Amino acid sequence: MQSIGKLSETVGVKVPTIRYYEQIGLLPAAERSAGNQRLYGSQTRERLAFIRHARDLGFTLDAIRELLSLSDRPDLPCAAADNIARRQLLDVKRRIARLQALQDELERMVIQCGHGTISDCRVIETLGNHALCAHEHALAGADAHQNDADRAVT
Amino acid sequence: MQSIGKLSETVGVKVPTIRYYEQIGLLPAAERSAGNQRLYGSQTRERLAFIRHARDLGFTLDAIRELLSLSDRPDLPCAAADNIARRQLLDVKRRIARLQALQDELERMVIQCGHGTISDCRVIETLGNHALCAHEHALAGADAHQNDADRAVT
DNA sequence: CTTGAAGCTCTAGTTGCTAGAGGGATTAAC
DNA sequence: GTTAATCCCTCTAGCAACTAGAGCTTCAAG
User: Fold this and answer.
1) Which of A36, A50, A103, A153 measures 20 to 30 Å from A88, CA to CA?
2) Contacts of residue A79 in chain B, CB cutoff 8 Å?
3) Dihedral angle at the C-alpha atoms of A82, A84, A88, A90, nearest 10 degrees?
4) Strand C contacted by A56 CB (< 7 A)
């Protein structure tokens, strides 16, 4: 049985985050010592490691919740888990594509900077006048108004 | 002079977002009509377009605040603006690199899925056991505990 | 037995918005 | 001229996924 601090250390998740996961029901309520301190066994440790790993791969807590409930039912077909992972993969691919467009634009901006004064700064000018852009990045594409997922790229 | 709705439409920023920008001081307090409704001229419209464009390129509101205050002083050297853009570019590059690692890992997970039951699901198994990963993505690298910027990748 | 670290609960803050309640203003049709 | 629809106003609260801090208790080492 480990204290929350030890668990934090071994799994690599901060103490308040572990408490937060318990609070939102991702982790079961921990056992307590005589003095009301949380104690963890190997089962919760593994669950936390699972969460940590999935977070590292960019899954949302909601997706992780789903994956965890799937992993509790080993007899079900794995299509659902597969789908979640595929969705995540698509999401990652979309984000990469968008970031790459941003990278191009930023590179253009930075390269063109003549290091003079603000009044002829390419960075400021390009930001102020979208027409100077090489391509469209988020603006005026298929959907002029971007959605949350697009915003989340930052 | 435009109403907030028209401004929203022409610039492509939602009405509550415009009010929010005013509230946090990114936009000046708008003029008001006799009936207390906001009215906007071309100057604020341009400022908003600047903000919109910079947001699209992934700049934080703080960075945008800085860029805006720079653009108000055309006589200053443009090194500061250049630096902000360079920082942003580095950030984008780091994010792309990290997302690409995630993409690889997710692809491996998905490809190996035998479409059997959860009990032999590669997705679940890989998430539960980080040792199965091909490389290290965020875990156990130079710094075991990831920082905010890494998290922000989602 | 004391001291300092680690733990506890609770509230509030972060970023960049978004949603909703409960009202007033404006405009177009009739 | 009025009425209905649509806009706009302010204010508060909520989202994800934590993080930080206050003010307290418990534990482990010396």
Assistant:
1) A103
2) 115
3) 70
4) no
DSSP label at B14? -
pLDDT per residue over B8-25, tens digit each?
999 999 999 999 999 999
**Does ipTM exceed 0.90?**
no
Query: At A23, is the pLDDT very low, low, confident or very high (cuts 50, 70, 90)?
Result: very high
Q: Is any atom of strand C within 7 angstroms of residue B39's beta carbon?
A: no
Could you tell me if A138 and B56 are in contact, meaning their C-beta atoms sit under 8 angstroms apart?
yes
Give Cα B85 to chain centroid, integer Å: 14
Task: State residue A149 phi and psi, 5-degree precision.
Answer: -60, -40
Structure tokens at B10: 């022409």
Is B32 in a helix, a strand, or coil? Answer: strand
**Hey, what are A29's tokens?**
């309520």
| pLDDT at residue B2 in the model | 94
Domains parsed from chain B with CATH numbers: 4-59 (1.10.1660.10), 95-151 (no CATH)
Helix axes B79-112, A79-112, angle to 10 degrees: 160
| Residue the block writes with tokens 């590179």 | A107
Chain A contact set for B99 (CB, 8 A): 58, 92, 95-96, 99
Question: Nearest residue (Cα to C1') for D18?
Answer: A17
Rounded Cα–Cα distance for residues B119 and A16 (Å): 32
Interface check for A128 against chain B (CB to CB < 8 A): the answer is yes
With both helix axes pointing from N to C terminus, report the angle between A42-56 and A4-11 in degrees, rounded to the nearest 10: 40
Residue with the two structure tokens 């703080």: B62
φ, ψ of residue B114 to 5 degrees: the values are -85, 0
At A16 the three-state DSSP class reads: helix
Tokens of B141: 């690298």
From the CA of A20 to the C1' of C12: give the distance in Å: 15
